[in-house]
Amino acid sequence: MTFEYMDELERAVIALRDDRDARAVVITAAGEEHFSVGMDLKQLMSGAQTRGGFDAVLDQRLRVLSLIEQLDKPVIATMFGYCLGGGLELPLACHFRLAATEGARIGLPELDLGTVPAWCGTARLTRTVGRAHTLDMILRAKKIDGPTALAIGLVHELHPVAELKAKAVELAEELAAQPPIAVAGVLRAVIGAEHLPLEEALRIERDAVRRCSTSADQIEGMTAFLEKRRPLFSGR
């Protein structure tokens, strides 16, 4: 994940954030061999100063992952081959993770390099799989496979690598068919209120309910239910 890659990803995420017609996002990689081994360490060591220094490089990466996590539309990551370092931290910022049944090597092996995960990997992994699994993976520099990732709750589904991207698109199409205002409300309530006191979390949930109550999609959903048909949501 070079400097140029992160620039391009940031532009793409901002464009998706502002695109009302985009209802779901799939983040994948070319081919079927590997997702990503994360940061280009050679470029980091030789060129960080051209980007304002090490902290500026990390700040951008944290900013981009935060933008992904805070999108008001579901983001799905496909995980196959090497998903290491930033190649796991990026999927951790996504709302759904689909992994290959075979061949995946997933981990945060930064201790092998004498350092620690730097793109919020410690926090997001802990919130996803809990403290015990996080410490086991990071302190032992483990690289786990897809079935193990599913067993500890790191990924949502497993599929053969040849089918993985198609399955991610199928899931995106399923999620895109849901009412966008309600989807955004759920994402806001779950992710934005995850660690807030219950009363504050309930306030965010109630705000989401109010937004839906004035929407054409809620009328369509209730009408379709009474008419025993599939709803067709417009995003209004």
Q: Which residues form runs of ≥5 with pLDDT under 50?
A: none
Mean pLDDT over the full residue set: 94
Main sheet summary? 4 strands, parallel
Query: SSE string, helix = H, strand = E?
Result: HEHHEEHEEHHHEHHHH
Structural class: alpha/beta
Question: What would you say this structure looks like, in words?
Answer:
With 236 residues, the chain is α/β, with parallel strands linked by helices. It folds into 2 domains: 3-176, 2-enoyl-CoA Hydratase, Chain A, domain 1, CATH 3.90.226; 180-226. It has helices at residues 3-18, 41-47, 54-69, 86-92, 121-129, 131-139, 146-151, 161-176, 180-192, 198-213, 216-226; strands spanning 25-27, 75-79, 82-84, 96-100, 105-107, 157-159. The strands form 2 sheets. Strands 1-2-4-6 form a 4-stranded parallel β-sheet, with helices on both faces. A two-stranded parallel sheet has the order 3-5. Helix 1 (3-18) packs parallel to helix 3. The radius of gyration is 19 Å and the shape is globular. The chain starts with a helix and ends in a 10-residue tail after the last helix. The mean pLDDT is 94.
Short description:
The protein has eleven helices and six strands. With 236 residues, the protein is α/β, with parallel strands linked by helices.
What layout of secondary structure does this protein have?
Elements: H1 3-18, E1 25-27, H2 41-47, H3 54-69, E2 75-79, E3 82-84, H4 86-92, E4 96-100, E5 105-107, H5 121-129, H6 131-139, H7 146-151, E6 157-159, H8 161-176, H9 180-192, H10 198-213, H11 216-226
Parallel strand pairs: 1-2, 2-4, 3-5, 4-6
Helix pairs in contact: 1-3, 4-5, 5-6, 9-10
